[in-house]
Amino acid sequence: MSLKRLLYGGCVCTAALLAFSVSAQAKRARCFTTDDGYFPCSYRAIDDAGSFRISAPGYPTYVLEIDGPGFAYGYVNLGRRNVPLPGQFVRSRDDGACWNNPQTNTKLCAW
Prior knowledge:
This protein is of the alpha+beta class. Helices cover 19% and strands 47% of the residues. It has one domain (29-110). The chain starts with a helix and ends with a strand.
């Protein structure tokens, strides 16, 4: 195998790794929670189903894990522990960036 082919293969592998790592990085967003109001946050997708994590300095980290199309369950990270959020979240029909919990009358959004 020639040196050119090795270098070319190495460049292709490096480019692929960078592309995958960039897509997994957090993105700037504007968030809203019933408890915290509006705040700038970081949004990170955590799987292909649409589960995500939002975080910001001075605020708890929220995670919604998709349970099925339009339904999710969540938890909040308070320091070193994750606390399950009661009830099930349902994707808002009015705004697809929002999830409502009809059992607790709470809302979580990330734009």
